[in-house]
Each structure stands twice: as C-alpha cells, then as structure tokens.
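Q: Could you write out the predicted structure for this multi-component system? I'm mainly interested in how the pieces pack against one another.
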Amino acid sequence: MRKCLVTCFAIFLLLFVALSLSAQTSKADSDRIAKLEQQVADAKGSADNSWMLTSSGLVLMMTGPGLALFYGGLVRKKNVLATMMQSFAMMALITVLWALFGYSLSFGAGNGFVGDFHHLFLNGVGSQPDPDYSPTIPQQTFMVYQLMFAIITPALITGAFAERMKFSAMVIFMVLWSVVVYDPMAHMVWGKGGLLNAALGGRFPTLDFAGGTVVHVTSGVSALVCAIYLGRRLGYPREAMLPHSVVLSFVGACLLWVGWFGFNAGSALAAGSLATSAFVATHFAAAAAVVGWAGAEWVRNGKPSALGAISGAVAGLVAITPAAGFVNPMAALFIGLAAGVFCYLMVAKVKARLGYDDSLDAFGVHGAGGTLGALLTGVFASSAVNPIFKDAQRNVLASGLIEGNTHQLLNQFVGVAIAWALAGVGTLIILKIVDATVGLRVSEEHEIQGLDLSQHGEEGYYWEVST
Amino acid sequence: MTKIEAVIQTSKLEAVKMALHEIGVEGMTVFEARGHGRQKGHTEVYRGREYTVDLIPKIKLELVVADDLTEKVVQAITSAARTGKIGDGKIFLSRIDQAIRIRNDERGERAL
C-alpha cells in the first residue's frame, strides 16, 4: 500500500513537472509565432508601401510632364507655355486644397454623397492604415496616392478650353470644380458609405477600379460643357490650327502610358497579384487601342498617323481604367480595340458634325472612352480576376454580365449617369459664377497675341539672333 | 551687276551650291522659305481634320554677281536644280546699282 502511494506520488510529480515544462515551451512558442506573424505583416506592409509610393510618383508623372507635353504639343506655338502651365498649376493648387479639406471631403466617412470634415488639415492621417481602404499601407500613403488622381482629373479638362481661357478664370474654376465635382464623385465611388461604392456596400455598387467614372467621365463631360460654354476659338474651324509639335505630344503620350501603370495597377492598393492583373490589362488595352485608332485612320485616310497612334493609346488607357483589376487580358484587348475605334469616330466625325470646339479632344477621348469603359466593365468583370461581390456566407458571386450578373450593367449605368449629371450641372454652375465675376475668355486681342505672352508675359520659343 | 534670286527645292541646295562653287561664285545668302507657284500643296490630317498645306518649304538663294558671270550662274542653277517636275522653282534677275563692302568701303564689282 505504501509502495503504491509512493509510486503514485512519483508519477504525479513527474506529470506536474512535464506539464509545467510544456506550458512554458508553448508560451515561448506562441510568443515566437506572434513575433513571426508581426514580421510577416511588416514585410507585406513594406512591400505594399513601396509599390504604392512608386505608383504615386508614376501618377504625378502623368500630369507633369506627361499631360503637359501631350497637350502642349497639340496647341499652337503661341500657347504652349500657357497650356503646360494649366496642368502644372493643378499640381500646386489641388495639392494645397487636398491637404486642407479635399482628402477629408473625399474619403472622410460622411454620407452617401460626400465625405466629412473628420480629416480636416489631414487630422488623423498618419502612419496607421485605414483598414476600410487599404489595410497594409499607412493612410498617409493612401492619401498622397489619391491626391495624384485629384490632380490629373481637372488637368484633363484644360484640353477643352485650350488657347482661349484666362489663367485667373481657370484657377477659380478648378478650385471650385475640385470641391463641387471631384471630391463628391470620388466619395460616392470610393469613399466609406459612398452611394456607388462596390467594395464598401454602396446602394448602387458601381465597378470603377481606377477612375473611369471618377476621373474620365467627370473630366470629359465637364470638358464638353466648357467647350460649348466658352465657344470656339477665333477662326475655328475656318483657319488651320495645327499642332505645333506632335513630337512633344508623342513624348507626353509615352509618359502617360508608363504612368498609367501606377494609375491602374496602383489602384490594387497593394503589391499582389491583383496589381499584376491590372497592369497586364492596362498594357493590353493600350496596345489594342493603338491598332483600333490607327487602323481606322488607315482605312479612312490611307495613312496611319503618329498623332492617331498616340491618341489611340490614350483612349485605350482611359477605357481600361474602370475595368483594370476586374477583367482578364482578352477582355482588355477587346475593350482597348473598341475604345480606339469609338474615340476616333467621336473625334473625327461626331465633333465635326456637332461643331463644338473641344480643342484637344478632352471629351472625345476621356468622356467618350470613360463612358464606354465604365459600361463594358459591367459586361466583362470577372469574379475569377477579382471576387468583389460575396454573399453573407462569403461565397463569391458573379461580377459582370457575361458571368450572369445582369444587374451590374444597370449599376454601371447608374454610376455613369450620376457622373454625367454631377459633372454637367456642376460645371455649368461654376462657369456661370466665374463668367459673372472675373470673366472666362481672354480678349480677342490677347487670343490673337497668344496666351503665353498675354497671360504669363513670356514665350515658349524665344528667337534670338546669336551673338 | 545682277542680283540672282532663285527659289529651289530644299533637296537641291547642296547640288546648286556645288555647281556655283565650281564656276567660281564666292558668296551667297540662303533663306528657308515657304511658298508655291503652280505646284499644288498637300493635305495633312490631324485627328480626322484635313488641312491643305499650300505653302511648301523651299530654299531661296540670293546672290549678286558681275554681269559677265550672270548667264553661267543661271545655267549652273538650272542644271543643278532641275528634276523636270512641277515645283522645281524659279529664277529672277534684276539690276543692282551699287554694292559696298562694309569692311573697307570698296565699291562696285570689287565689293562682290
């Protein structure tokens, strides 16, 4: 009996020692695992952040020098600096607005239509991620990335009123436009609680990966309203107004193409496979659109032009913007090809027939291409590329029309219609305000003299006798 | 003295210059010019809009020579610049009253 007790005690002692030892090791293990998990998360955060900062730089490069060169080459020599300056001015003006209240109005929680003042003066926008938008990168990175979109969007409009708008009027117009049109539209599509937000449960979930509606439809439609409201340039269409340097435009368009990888692949907001998918779709659409536009020219005029080829690339990039990140490469090829031909017809046929002077075809390329791309996104969106819609049990649902989501095309229509309405009405009201205060157009004398001299007191190409 | 103004195809400038050097012409002034005679221009198409470009790039040569050299110069230019197609250009001759070398005030043919 005694022996039995001793044995039992010994076994108990052993068990106790073993258990306490194992408890210690499991605590050490879980500490190590937690540490490892943290390191993995940090590594992913660093990888995502480096791509997003790179993308931010790429998107800024699209405005300056990309768009500045693209538009600058298309105007006459006497307006080259003024045109480039209009894009460059956005890099300064919109940045200041974004820091003060623009980011907050776009991405603050707010209501279905516009953000709030929670992030006024970038309050609370620091190194911590906002998990609703981008869980792996600092919110400050997200903020500066989105800023680059807010810069290029109004810069796109300047193509419509090139060669005839006062610089002062343009500044006031753009400040108001950014607040009245861009910030609400960005909020509706991408902001928390936005009416059209597909990722955060909007009422009409509109698929817009990188800004087909937010950037291109709004800027393109506003461009059309500007072109009609300001009227034609003196002498249009009687006088020849040839691009003074398609060479500059060529360089600009190539920079736009490269920058667009930041625009679209960056919109994955991470450096993973979705970014790759968007990158590939972007490139394929641009290439197919060059074939579409230049091919259409070749058939109609007997020659494919350099200006046609680069315009086609931009049209394709515009159209794939909402779709990149939702469609596979074959759909991207189709969207690009369609955009190349469609935008060519808009610019070469429809504009001439209707008679408005959209000087550099901001509407014909961005308005038309953006609308086409946004609608085709509803057709081609694939849940295999991006499982954006899920039911309550986290099962993946169909994305686009081809997959059987007939509703999506309707939602895309709603998104496009709201963008058209907001841009059209907003722009008209702002134009009336600016017209009544400082006046929109330069004087006839100044228009003939050129905006470089009359608005900025300098010349792009100064002819000097060599000494 | 005779002033010879010749409007020629841009691609013929080198040939004309060489022909003139061969016959001993020492100086000339060359302008890049635009113009047209009977030659029609061409059309350019930018984003579907067609423009007629009727002022075509040309080279205009100007030189003043002694009267006895005039015919040789005209011969040299016509034979060097001729392609036989419309657009080869024209030569205009006019009398010059006086020539002055700025460096030393020489006058007349000596200043050429």
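A: Regarding packing and overall arrangement: The radius of gyration of chain A is 27 Å.
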